[in-house]
Structures are given as C-alpha cells and as structure tokens.
Design goal:
The chain has 123 residues and is an alpha+beta fold. Helices cover 39% and strands 21% of the residues. It has a five-stranded antiparallel beta sheet with strand order 2-3-1-4-5, sandwiched between helices. The longest helix has 15 residues.
C-alpha cells in the first residue's frame, strides 16, 4: 500500500518527518493536505501493514536514539497503524508538517534530521 518516493524513507528516513496514524483515512487526508500546501506529492509516503513493516531498515546502522524510533515505527506498521513520511528541507516545512499531522490526530511524529532526531507525542 506504499507510495513511491525518490528515496525510500523506510530504508533511510533521514531528512523526513514521519508520523503515525491509528485511522487510515486521517493519514490519507494528511497526504492530500501536505500536497495541497506545496510538498511534492510523489515524495510523500503512505505506508501500512506488514509488507511495509518488512521493508523498514532496522539494522542498527543509525545512532542509538534513531534505532529506537525506527523500531517504534516498524512495530506500529506491524500492528496495523499507518505511517506518513514527507521530506523536510527547512524549519517552515517541518512546522507545516507537524501542524498537518496534529490537525489530523497523528499519535506521534519524528523528524529524522541530518544531525539530530526529534520525536514528539502528538496525541
């Protein structure tokens, strides 16, 4: 059920904001809203289910805190939740993504930045 992206955030989430939704329709709406405000639609990922969970690279090649976050997202997918990923270029885009995710009841969001990973509980 995944969409394609030029870089696969399930293999390398660097530079992406990633959010978890319990309700698929909210995740789908988040993708639509992100595209409507200017994010490139073909780079926004919508992931769900065990097939996408199996694609998550949890090989411990990341920093310790990032490894934990990646495993959380994999578990959420395995448990039937939906993940949305969007590439982030600057702080304004990060704010827009967080506002969009929050407005649609995302449970959590992680920004996998170049040098730092920041997770937030949005529920």
């Amino acid at each position: 059920m995944s969409t394609t992206s030029t870089t696969d955030p399930l293999q390398d989430p660097s530079g992406h904001a990633v959010a978890v939704f319990k309700v698929y329709e909210y995740a789908r709406k988040a993708v639509e809203l992100l595209a409507a405000v200017g994010f490139e639609a073909e780079k926004i990922g919508l992931f769900q289910g065990s097939a996408d969970a199996d694609r998550v690279d949890d090989s411990h090649k990341w920093f310790a805190d990032t490894d934990d976050d990646i495993r959380v997202y994999k578990t959420k997918l395995e448990n039937g939740q939906t993940v949305v990923s969007v590439p982030i270029e600057n702080s304004q885009e990060l704010q827009q993504a967080e506002e969009t995710f929050t407005s649609l009841n995302a449970d959590m969001m992680t920004h996998f930045g170049k040098w730092m990973t920041v997770s937030k509980d949005l529920s």
